[in-house]
Amino acid sequence: MKKMIFVLLLVLTNLSAELKHEWATPAFADRGIKIIDIRTPPEWKETGIVKDSYLIMFFDEKGNFDVQSFLKKLDKIVKKDEKFALLCRVGSRSGMVSEFLSDKLGYRVINLKGGIMKMKRDGYKTVSYRK
């Protein structure tokens, strides 16, 4: 019985899961969808950040990560059924994390392909990162 309930919960959790891949563009920043920037503080300092984005590092400079810490911070910003976007430097890390959040945990995620670098090439003016 417990096994059946667990499987049912797993299925129901993934019913709301959604993963989209969209190009990171200056126009995306104006859509009103929360953007979670998963880069590192040195990267935020180097390129600047998207105005009003949320900064939650996923991988540190050595490639280490703490899923529980990330999820604790993420859950303070978005609801599980709320659509939000992930951004990194070029879209590789955000792609991996987006798939994990959607496929394994049931979040509704948009991976911003091309990352902050594409947005900047397309003319987006970042704001300075201040600690």
Helices, strands, pairings?
Layout: H1 2-15, E1 18-23, E2 35-37, H2 41-47, E3 54-55, H3 67-74, E4 83-87, H4 92-104, E5 108-113, H5 115-121
Parallel strand pairs: 1-5, 2-3, 2-4, 4-5
Radius of gyration (CA) equals 15 Å
- The mean pLDDT is 90
Number of helices, where a helix is a run of at least 4 consecutive DSSP H or I residues: 5
Q: What amount of the residues lies in strands?
A: 15-25%
Categorize the overall geometry: globular
Write the H/E string, N to C: HEEHEHEHEH
| End-to-end distance | 50 Å
How many domains would you count in the coordinates? 1
Alpha-beta content class = alpha/beta
Write a concise synopsis of the structure shown.
Helix content is 37%, strand content 17%. With 131 residues, it is α/β, with parallel strands linked by helices.
Give your account of this protein's structure:
By secondary structure, the chain is of the alpha/beta class. The protein has helices at 2-15, 41-47, 67-74, 92-104, 115-121, and strands at residues 18-23, 35-37, 54-55, 83-87, 108-113. The protein has a single domain (2-121), classed as Rhodanese-like domain (Oxidized Rhodanese, domain 1), CATH 3.40.250.10. A five-stranded parallel beta sheet has the order 1-5-4-2-3. Mean pLDDT is 90; it is low at 6-13.
Which keywords apply here?
single chain, 131 residues, alpha/beta, five-stranded parallel beta sheet, globular
